[in-house]
């Protein structure tokens, strides 16, 4: 068994990682840290893990371990990255600190980077985008959830040459409340947050940077909070120089994702679930992607949906670790989701 | 008092009209029809109206009346329009039958029109767009809810010349489940409909026709069902030939809506509700509009939010009737909405 | 016009009072206080009131006024009660401070009362229970929301002698998240609070004291948080010494509520809404009550439902003030609620 | 591998069974039937199963199989039971047809039983209640979801002698919309069903019969629909002849459930989740049980929560089949649920 520890195990993504690792055939959980909940059981914070015999330890009690998953706020990982890399052969970071390829871009979108010398070592976690560079990686940066959903939708078009850097792309993203994290606050209190369609990042959302960096596209990005807990659904409105034929679209998506274990192509057909939906993937590591052509407006509409806590963070991190360490790609990630299921 | 009857009073918009008319200082409800619920009390269908002493009558029992509000499915009003106009001096139709200015356009987006000779008489109900033509109108066509939310956002730009017919506009709309009507069905059953972000009209939504007809704009229109009951929120991504200055945007919106009793300009500021939201207008006839400039992408993002049952149908109809008949514009429509309030 | 000020206008009940007073034909809002939001507009906190030209003032800026509505946390009103009564002829308090008839009972259920000399002056606000003592009252204590819903269900049985102090009564109450107030906190954050059926006061809920004091009944009281924002629904399981006949039950309820403007008797019949429901009264000052007899278990099941923000606090306060000041009872409270409407 | 088929695979419990069987280490799915969806993929109805290579077959195409799970409406299984038992060594029925021990009791609560000769062969599925009789059983009747949640809460008290047949017990149950099945209908349409606290079986709910039959208790049973999709939460108000000590309560629960793999005792402690909640078990086969003593009212309040689709039907069925066939009890049922998760 490979030992794994989770820094920041009391947050939402930390808890999701603990859940995944507890059910993973290759990993054994060694430790998880929490400043606030040190000595308490993991189940006292994450009720689904009440059966897990594990208590939080203080952050300064971390022991060496094979793989260290880091689930701390943006800006904190980079302060400790040297220490983390000393402790573990493989560090998988779920913050934004090592997602962008260079410090200059980072400084443009976030505050100044304090450990730029590690950036070149970091591999972007999303296997659908970067699988070939993951085996043996010792620093892995899990992607942003909204960047992940958006890029999964656009990637086939880019790879097939149906979408080029000069083309107009609008990404209108809808996300759940778990993106706000476990902290509370008035805006995320139930009475104020319930039932919203709330623009919370109309422009200059930081995930725009990731998309530009990895897809070489300029995307007009806007994020709305909607009534769900888990989920990131991106609707991309794409204006190519020439509208492709439907069969070329299908080819592009099948070419890109035909062998991907976690991407489902959903476009049309009958029934209730005819396009990608967060509900259909809630709790799972699956992404759904699909499209429709709008000849009237020379537009491709691309839909993609993920569970932001899974494919958008903890699941993506485990998937990347599986690839990095040579495990079965789907190990620990086989859960298919539920039907019916509520605000996912 | 002016007498008013409601054809199709058991549906959602019919019930909303009955509620508004019951509290209106100028109208007196004369009759409401329902094939299915004839002889039953209005309150047996609409629980909020249990205090109303009114029973449904069969459709063939309609008596002459001053104003007839018609809330029947698309295609049904036009079959009976001559009869309705015989019965009432003023007919206000909430279906799509008389929304489009000519039969040719109608036939393109819907099925063939069977009463095209009445189209020229019809006035579009939205006072913010068509107030000057409403006084004395004898056939009024209430606008589509998603067209209404979208047009209210774009109108100031069009009027100020900041947006011209050649500019690219994407309207990404999010709507509640009441748009599906009172009928039920598997896709709208609670387990399947709850918590969705579901593309339900990715392209060629019929409301696109109204927008083109009345704003002279080509809009790439996409509608998503989200978890709420009441609400239509439009996010318009606008690419003008030149990005205006913020102060010119404010001028455009203030010029357009400064005197409008039912439009609130909401853009930025502090607090939880910094942009237009359906929650903030739920149950009311208010629309909220706002915007943000995206210099990085030469984009204007315009937000607008309404209650689809009110500003998007029944409230708009009463507002238009108030203007048509010379009543106080806000009569019967003063309710301001609630805070906090859930899936609106 | 009668002048009215609201102490604590930034909280949920404060905002609801401001909404009601702004639309009230007899009241004119003079001031509203907020320590945190002083000088900000009321609409910046309560988005439905963006149209209201009113700013919060600091608590120490309160001027004399005809009626002072006090919406501060439990324990705070009594510290300032002498000052409040100096400022206004009529004080209506929405906290628990003056709800109980004597200091001893208060001390049993809450902490020590610091202004017991005012208790004898206080009149319980619920008109259905205490109408005869309200005219001219100068200190009015609005009832607890869950006590209100429970008592409205049980009152007819008590008055008709169908329920006596020795009979067993279980009150199983379901409430919305607005009861937790505007403050936020982890337990009330959207991800943790959404979709719950959560026992939050399994035993010894303080509203038990009010019920015992005013109905002279011992009630086993348990409160659950459920997924809604507004609403308190009480299901009372009553075991009388002898099960009454259905017609005697109807007589009891009709006798009690036949002339009440805000209580609707709902029991059986067809349709979707066959029993009292919070949805059916959301946003309104109405209460619904109903019952079913269970001969198999010699049990009466009584249902009652209110909007906790309205009939359960702000609406009840205005209703009581209307009675106290001799206004039309329903003044400012005519809104009937909506259909359909979501998590109310 | 043991072959298994699912009759009625397009419904909610059928889909849940297919999900469980697809991930089960001992079972291999052979067939699933659906009259309406014959020849369509399972994934076209259950979007979480889009990855499953399986199509529905017509009901008359059923082949012999080791285990047959039957998910059809009440009254239908018994019409075909002889045929089903000819086809399979083990039949697990999820309807109510074989839940009650004798035909007379069945006829009292349901319509007349048409295959009473099979009743004596049927074993009640709930392992916590009937584990010793399951091994080798060839007809297994999965329990009712609300009976299951209620009995799991009361069983320890009965077994420990803390609750006797003469004691008063009220079971106030809150359930999700998936209990209504996949059919739709106006009352379960999203606008009408969302946000409810709706009494839907105030008295004489049929699950009362199961509880009486298996626990030898008379329980006053009332069921409310609340806003969630999955979940059954029972609050039992118990009045024993003598209130037990807290330590005796803990002993009773630990004695009963200490070795149970799927029952968690949750009572008090800190954090957000201090009592049993449906959210904490959503998607899993776990039950949570807990209690609080109310000395003031000589009452025990017992809380229990399950996912009605899992522990309340499909999970219970698989659990029972595991026991009947000698598999690991937890096989295929290890999923622990999610945190955070919405209307479960």
What do these coordinates show?
The structure is a homotetramer of 344-residue chains. Chain A has 344 residues and is α/β, with parallel strands linked by helices. The first copy, chain A, has 2 domains: 2-121, Rossmann fold; 145-306, Dihydrodipicolinate Reductase, domain 2, CATH 3.30.360.10. Chain A is 26% helix and 22% strand. Chain A has 9 helices and 13 strands. In chain A, the strands form 2 sheets. Chain A has a 7-stranded mixed beta sheet with strand order 8-9-7-10-13-12-11. In chain A, β3, α2 (77-87) and β4 (88-93) form a beta-alpha-beta unit. Chains A and B meet through β7, β8, β9, β10 and β12 of A and β7, β8, β9, β10 and β12 of B.
Quaternary state of the chains = homotetramer
Structural shape of chain A:
globular
**Topology of chain A as a string of helices (H) and strands (E):** EHEEHEHEHEHEHEHEEHEEEH
Classified by CATH, the class of the largest domain in chain A is Alpha Beta
Percent of residues in β-strands of chain A: 15-25%
The tally of domains of chain A stands at 2
Please name the fourth-level CATH homologous superfamily of the largest domain in chain A. Answer: Dihydrodipicolinate Reductase, domain 2
User: What strand line-up does the widest sheet of chain A have?
Assistant: 8-9-7-10-13-12-11
Distance between the termini of chain A: 32 Å
Kindly identify the CATH topology of the largest domain in chain A: Dihydrodipicolinate Reductase, domain 2
Largest pleated sheet of chain A: 7 strands, mixed
Helix-strand makeup class of chain A? alpha/beta
């Amino acid at each position: 068994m490979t030992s794994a520890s989770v820094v920041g195990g009391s947050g939402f993504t930390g808890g999701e990682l603990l859940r995944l690792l507890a059910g993973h055939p290759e990993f054994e959980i060694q430790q998880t840290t929490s400043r606030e909940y040190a000595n308490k059981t993991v189940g006292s914070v994450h009720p689904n893990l009440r059966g897990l015999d594990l208590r939080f330890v203080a952050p300064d009690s971390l022991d060496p371990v094979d793989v260290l998953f880091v689930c701390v706020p943006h800006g904190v990982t980079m302060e400790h990255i040297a220490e983390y890399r000393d402790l573990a052969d493989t560090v998988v970071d779920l913050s934004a600190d090592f997602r962008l390829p260079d410090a200059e871009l980072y400084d443009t979108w976030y505050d100044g980077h304090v450990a730029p010398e590690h950036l070149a070592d970091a591999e972007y976690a999303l296997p659908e985008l970067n699988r070939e560079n993951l085996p043996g990686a010792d620093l892995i940066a899990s992607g942003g959830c909204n960047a992940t959903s958006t890029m999964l939708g656009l990637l086939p078009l880019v790879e097939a040459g149906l979408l080029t850097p000069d083309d107009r792309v609008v990404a209108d993203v809808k996300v759940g409340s778990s993106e706000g994290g476990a902290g509370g606050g008035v805006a995320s209190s139930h009475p104020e947050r319930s039932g919203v369609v709330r623009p919370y990042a109309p422009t200059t959302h930081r995930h725009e940077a990731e998309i530009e960096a990895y897809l070489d596209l300029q995307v007009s990005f806007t994020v709305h909070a909607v009534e769900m807990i888990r989920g990131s659904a991106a609707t991309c409105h794409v204006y190519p120089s020439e509208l492709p034929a439907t069969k070329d679209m299908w080819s592009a998506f099948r070419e890109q994702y035909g062998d991907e274990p976690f991407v489902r192509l959903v476009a049309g057909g009958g029934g209730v679930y005819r396009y990608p939906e967060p509900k259909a993937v809630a709790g799972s590591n699956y992404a759904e992607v699909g499209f429709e052509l709008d000849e009237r407006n020379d537009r491709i509409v691309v839909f993609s949906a993920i569970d932001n806590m899974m494919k958008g963070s903890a699941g993506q991190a485990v998937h990347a670790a599986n690839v990095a360490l040579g495990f079965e790609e789907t190990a620990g990630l086989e859960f298919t989701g539920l039907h019916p299921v509520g605000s996912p």
